[in-house]
Amino acid sequence: MLRRRRSEPELTWEQFLAFRRQTSLHQRINEERVDFSQIFYKAAVGHFAGRRYIHTVGNATLAVLLRPRYILSEMITKSKWRMKSLKNKRK
Fold it and tell me: CB within 10 Å: which end of the chain, N or C, has fewer?
C-alpha cells in the first residue's frame, strides 16, 4: 500500500519473496500473530452477530491469547458503544 501511495511500482512476486527472506524470523512470526488475532477477532464478531455464542467465545479467546491488549481494548470500546446505543433506544 505504501508503494502505491508513493506512486512507486508494485513489487513482483520474486521481489516480494526476496524481501520476506530478508526480514527476521521474529518479525515474520510477529506479523503472523497480529494477522491471526485479527482473523479470530473478526470471526468472533461475525459469530456474535449470528448469535453463535460458543463459537464467539472460542474465537475471541484465541484472539485475546494472541494479542491481549489490542483485542481487549477493542472489545471494551465496542461494548461501551453498544451499551450507549441500547440506552438511547430505551428513551
Answer: C
The answer to whether 77 and 69 are in contact (CB under 8 A) is: no
User: For residue range 31-59, what is the model confidence (pLDDT) as tens digits?
Assistant: 999 999 999 999 999 999 999 999 999 99
This prediction has a pTM of 0.75
Q: 43 in helix, strand or coil?
A: helix
pLDDT per residue as tens digits for the range 9-19:
999 999 999 99
DSSP string, 4-31: HHTTPPPPPHHHHHHHHHHS-HHHHHHH
Nearest CA among 89, 44, 82 for reference residue 66: 44
| Eight-state DSSP code of residue 67 | S
